[in-house]
Every structure is written in structure tokens, then in C-alpha cells.
Amino acid sequence: MIRFEFFVAFLTAGLMSLLATPLVMRLALRVGAVDKPNPRKVHSTPIPRIGGVAIGISFLVAIWAGQWLHTLIPVYQDDGHNWILTSIAIILVLALGVWDDIRPLKPGPKFLIQLSIASLVYVAGFKIMTLDFPLLDASIDLGMFAYPATLLWIVGVTNALNLIDGLDGLASGVGLIVSLTVVAIASHSGDLHSAALAIILAGAIAGFLRFNFHPARIFLGDSGSLFLGFALAILALESWTVRTKAFTMLFPIVALGLPIIDTGLAMLRRLLRTMLPSETRPQYSAMSTFRSMFAPDRSHIHHQILARGVSHRNAVLILYAISVTLGISAYAMSVNDSQVGRILLILVAIAILVGIHQLRYEELPIHRNGILLRFYHSFYEWPLMQRSLFQSTVDIIFMTLAYLGAHSLTNTTLVAGMPLFEGAHAPVIMILLIQLSIFWLTGLYRETTRQMGIGDALRVIRSVLFAVIATVFGSLLLFREMPQVTFTIVNFFFLLSLVLTSRFSYSLLTYWLNRDFTGKKRAVIYSANTFGLAVLQFLLESRQFDVVPVGFLDDDPALEGKSLNGYPVYGGHWRLERIIKELGLDVVILPEHTLGKEQLSRLQRISRLYGLEIRKVQIALEHIPLESGTARPAAHLVAQQRS
Fold this sequence. Notes:
The protein is α/β, with parallel strands linked by helices. The protein is 59% helix and 8% strand. The N and C termini lie far apart (78 Å).
């Protein structure tokens, strides 16, 4: 239960902030700390921007007052942390922000200063010693990595608040919500010290928010956003070290979810943007790609909401609601047992993924925008990918996984009562040696994985079948024991699925991604037969054409409503007008044979009426004349595209 003294502390800090903010506004105008409009900003007039000074002064004065009233509010306590050093670090961050507001610093030096100040906090006793994984009921002792993990947390949260400071009152409002969340969680667990600090910070933010909410009369500036992020990061570390519950690490992460998600999304988006396939996009080097992750843009979460037509004020209120929801979720995790906490965490994760999907970022749907295919293409270009040694290493992993999968599903092993991995004669070792030998002997590693067909699939099936049969006979010879039939069958299908998927992954991914290629003309193929299938495959695997197939036309009434290779057969030429209206069709691709007069005449009439393109594909065997001699002419396959 929150003590009455906390309300006094909240009101005291809030009153100080209310009185200090107008004075800071005048000071900002005098020293030139003014935020001028630019294309990335949403305001149109110059506004003072050292609002963090008002919050910082109110916060520190209220803390010192709380120390004077130590019996009422335990602000400082002997808990193993050096609070004098911590106060110095907080003042240094505030000073860094003020300097940056008046004379902007370059990102590199500012980042190094932040690391140095965060190191003071680490020396003061705030450390992340373990990482918990509640879903796995496990934890990792960081040991020597505690220092970089602590610095990553402090600097990351500090800059996360800075990144969301793009709308009036957004960063300060989110900071207020997170502070109140910390108050609730700390009070419930009896950590009055963290609760006292958080309630004082919340009061200082609330007083400032009166002037910062839309339309803002003063901005946080770097002085405010860096100060708030730094203070909240330390409060999170304080709760980390005081409580020992398994979900302790997740409380501050979930409570700070909005700025953390926005920061992570920004870095991921900027990285993926360098991978978007575009002829006009410049080639990025490794260093420029890294730098692009930190380059400013207008695609943060609040920008995306504004782009949907939401007003400035409503966008801020929506983000407040999201932050409140995350705060309530963090509190619910703190007051319930681990099982309920896991369920809540999964629900929160699902809600976050759905929300990110609604933002409609161009870079994130890598399964549609060509990024995944581009990465896979470059991955397949590596010389290592074409080497048999690499492919056999991957197959060894698949063989092990198939064995373990069959074991877990059937609750049996190849040899009853024998350990899986212990000793040189363990069943898994024997399986790997036999199956890998069969793969080599059947020529599986002489195949290319770039273009796989039916013949290649049959060879894979044959190799896997022979490998499993050889495993059965190997078990009889070495262990005098016949494997169970169920185990053998499941092992075969597991191994076959893994090997087939790996061999066909390139072709499958190319087929899947090229089905929805934006920016191209939509085409139907006028032939649902072997020729039409060949044209479809050629168009899907080639990027040099400006069309993307959407289905087939065929005059055979029996084929209407069916599908070929996953693409629908819409019917004959009599369905063409309806298809143009429904699908926005641009092109009809004609087969090699000549259409009848009636079909061709109708097709030309519809083409003129709707502006439809007609293209013809021909495949022919042509004789190449020889310069001399009487040798037989060679057969040459020619594929032509005519508009």
C-alpha cells in the first residue's frame, strides 16, 4: 500500500516543477536553447527546449528534502549503492543534455560521454548480474559480462526516451506512466526506497507536463529526455537488485516497452532498408550500413500513427494508452505467480506483434518485399555453400535432429537401453557414419541446390531411403538388435523432410516470394498445360520481366475452377472481361500455338477496349548453320518474348 507521505512527495515535486518550468522557459530564450522547425519536426514555431532542467532540479531538490525527512521518506538508505556517486552521475547526464541543447554535440562524442557516466553508476553498485528466462525457467550468471550488460541497459534506455521525444508531451507522459508503474510494483514488494524515488520523479514530470502537453510551450530537449531515460534506467536497476523473483528482469522491460520497442524497430527498419531490392538504391558498405541504423528519420511509431490521419493530440493519447497497458501488464506479472506471468508475457508479445503489423512498415514484411530473397541469394553465392563439406555438415545436423525427433515421438531408440551419445559405439554415432556414407555413395553431393527438379527430388528420396535401410542392417550387424518399425518409419520421414526442405529451399523461397511482386503488371497465361506451366515457372524464377502471373486461362471447360501449381484456372476467353475487372489484369500471355480466329478476334477486341497487352511466347528448335563441313546441324533451343 502506498504511504501518505508519498502523496506529499509527489505534490512537493510537482509544485516545484510548476514553479520552475516558466523560469526555465525564460532562461532558454535568453541562452538560445530554442528548437527551430525543420522537415523532421511536427511544430512550426521556435520553442524553448531545455525543459529537462525544470524536471531535474525539482527531482533533485525533492530528493534532498526527502533525505532531510529521512524518517518519513527513505530516499537514501544503506543498501549497498553509493547514492552520492549516483547523484553525481544524474547531474552529469543533465549537464550533458543541457550542453547538447545549446551547442549540439556529434553522436560519437555524446555516446562516449554517456558510456563514461553509465560506468559511474556501475561503480556505484548498480549491476545486472544475471539474465532470467522465465519461459524456460532458467537464468544465466553474467559474470564478467555484467559490466557491458549494465552499460547497454543504461545507455539503451537513456536514448530510447530520447528517440520517442517526437510529439508534444509524448516522452514526458510515457516517463510519468513508467514512474507510476515502478511506484506500484515497488510498493507491492515492500521496496519503499525505489517507490519514493519513483514518486518524486513522477511529481516532477507531472508539473512539467502542464506546459509540455500539446500544444507545447516548452520541450524536454535532450536535457529532459536523456535525464528521464537515465533516471528510469537506474530505477529499473534498483528494482533488479532488490527483488529476486524470476520475472524481476521483465518488469522494467515491459513497463518501458514503448520506447524500447520504438528504438528496436527503428534500428531494425534502418538495417532492413539497406537490403531493399531497388535499382536506384545505393550500395551500402558494412560501415555505412551500421551508421544507417542510427540515422534519424520520420518513421518512428508516432510518425506512422500521424501518417494514418490521426491528430497530434490523439496520437499522443493512443501512445499513452499503450504505455498504460504495458505498465498494467508489468504490474500484473509482479503480483502473480510465474505460471500466470508466462501467460501474460505471451499475450503481451502477441499484442505487440499485432500492433507492429498495423504500422505497415515497408521494410518489415521481409517475406514480401524481397529482402529475404535477396539475403538468400547472397547466401547461396558464398563459395562455402557449394562445397560438399558444408552440405554434409548440414546433413549431419539433420540426421541428429531426425533421430532425436523419432526418439521423442515414439519414446524408443535405435538400440534399447543404450545411451544416445555416450561412447564410440553410441547409436547416434553409428547412424551418422552409415547415413552420411550412403549419401556420398548415392551421389547426393554431386547435385546443385540452385535449381532442383523432380529428378533431384527422386534422388533425395532414394538416398534417404537407402540410408535408413542401411541403418537397420547396421543395427543388426553391430548390436544384434532389430530397430522398432515405428521408430524407423518416423526417422525416415523426419530425415526426408529436413533434407528435401534444405535442397529445395532456394527454389521454394524464389517461388513463394515472386508470387507477390509489387510494381509489376498482372498477367494471365492462356494455356493451363505443360507449356503454360513452363512459362509460369520461367516467369517466377526470372526477374528480368515486368509481369507477375496471377493465374491461367484455358478454353477447356473441365479445367475451369481448378488450379495448376497453386494458380487458379479462371476459365476460357469468355471469362476474360470479368477477370480484367476483378483482378485489374494488364497482360495476357499467349501460348506457342495459334489461337482460333474467333478466340483471337475476341481477344483483340477486348484488348482495345480495356487497354490490355497481348504478349506471345514461343519456344522453337532452330538449326544453326555451320561455316564449313557437312556435319549434322545442332539443335538450339530458343525462347522469344514478343509484345
